[in-house]
Amino acid sequence: MELIQPVAWSAEGDGVRILDQRQLPSREVYRDLRSIDDVCEAIRTLAVRGAPAIGIAGAMGLALAADGSHSDRDTSRLNVGAAADRIRATRPTAVNLAWALERMLAAAATHPGTSMRDAMRAEATRILDEDRDMCRRIGEHGATLIADGSRILTHCNAGALATGGMGTALAAIYVAAEQGKRVDVFVDETRPLLQGSRLTAWELARAGIPVTVLVDSAAAVLMRAGAIDLCIVGADRIAANGDVANKIGTYALAIAARHHGIPFYVAAPASTFDPTTARGADIVIEQRSADEVRCGFGVATAPSGVDVFNPAFDVTPANLVTAIVSDTAVHRPPFNFSHRP
Q1: Predicted structure pTM score
Q2: Per-residue pLDDT of the chain (341 residues; tens, 9 = 90+)
Q3: Cα diameter, the chain
Q4: Which of 41, 91, 171, 237 has the fewest Cβ atoms within 10 Å of its own Cβ atom?
Q5: Which residues are marked as active site?
Q6: How far apart are CA 25 and CA 200, in angstroms?
């Protein structure tokens, strides 16, 4: 399978090249980000998205800050630290972003002057390479949960577009297909920004995986009809007790799956586990612009000025999760992630 690369170094090495996911599925457009402003804008506006991918983009973006930093060691570290704060604030819910930035700051702290820039570039590249390997391991663990002929329901996008490799939830599907298993994938549109229909369906169709798009509210109907064998989704943060923050609509899907006796799996790399957050209620949930609902994609779909509730994520309690698939294992309840697996 030819992998999509949503984030990488630019050809000249002076910027971060991203696949602008706002343009999909109609156009495949790549952009080079050459400043902290560019990186922050791309993450904030979802030009690059998915917890692992924004961690990689944030790390590479911070390396750009080191490129333009002052030669004095103390001044350089202050500049890089300020840039890290700006990048971290763009998406507060996804733990991978903060995790990657902390790794970058640790690299900066141990290498002054010119060597700091080299060390940070090397660390950002390491984060990308590690994510690619982690995705493969997640796929191999997750594929053990998928039988031949499985009909799989997923939500949002947890594939190659969201990571540095083959994805998290979709990695399990890709590896199962590589093993010769027949799979049919059903994808929630994932309102309001349609990451399921715009991104996941595009990615799966490109890979030759049979895919059907449905409106979010139709998922329970398919389950009741006996048309779904399992659900598998990604995650943006997993609390120590196993509560899972993921794209809004995941919680409702988990409730429906439990009611219909369907396994509900979550797939995520170790960097998504947050041992410092005890439970899901402690996770900060990002609130998105009301205009994403009132006039998403430039078309008015609600009265101008009407109040809107538009959280980017919800939290699925651990007791609704059948298993969590990481790059190290398939984790079964009772969950205890007080340390990263």
Answers
A1: 0.88
A2: 667 889 999 888 888 999 999 999 999 999 999 888 999 999 999 899 888 899 999 999 998 887 654 444 444 555 788 889 899 989 877 778 988 999 999 888 887 666 788 888 999 999 999 999 999 999 999 999 999 999 999 999 999 998 989 999 999 999 999 999 999 999 999 999 999 999 999 999 999 999 999 999 999 999 999 999 999 999 999 999 999 999 999 999 999 999 999 999 999 998 889 999 999 999 999 899 999 999 988 899 999 999 999 999 999 999 999 999 999 999 999 999 999 88
A3: 66
A4: 41
A5: 236
A6: 10
**CA atoms of 141 and 126, how far apart (whole Å):** 23
Which residue among 72, 101, 136 closes a domain? 136
Alpha-carbon gap, residue 30 to 17, rounded angstroms: 7
Buried (b) or exposed (e) across 305-336, using 16+ Cβ within 10 A?
eeeeebebbbbbbbebbbbbbbbeebbeeebe
Q: Does residue 341 lie in a domain region?
A: no
The Cα 321–Cα 171 span in angstroms is: 19
CATH code, domain carrying 105: 1.20.120.420
Q: Extract the tokens encoding 324.
A: 């969590």
What domain range includes position 126?
7-136
Listed residues 136, 153, 184: the one ending a domain: 136
In a domain, residue 336? The reply is: no
Same domain, 70 and 30: yes
Asked if the bond preceding 192 is cis, omega within 30° of 0, the reply is: yes
Answer for the pair 202, 24: CB distance below 8 angstroms, yes or no.
Answer: yes
Beta-ladder partners of 230:
152
Using CA atoms, how far residue 120 sits from 105, 221, 224, 245, 267, in Å, is 8, 49, 51, 29, 28
Q: Looking at the domain assignment, is residue 250 inside a domain?
A: yes
Q: What ranges make up the beta strands (E) of 263-332? A: 264-267, 273-274, 313-316, 323-325, 330-331
- Rounded to whole angstroms, the Cα distance separating 236 from 46 reads 14
Look at the block and give the residue holding tokens 């560019």: 38
Q: Cα separation of 303 and 281, whole Å?
A: 32
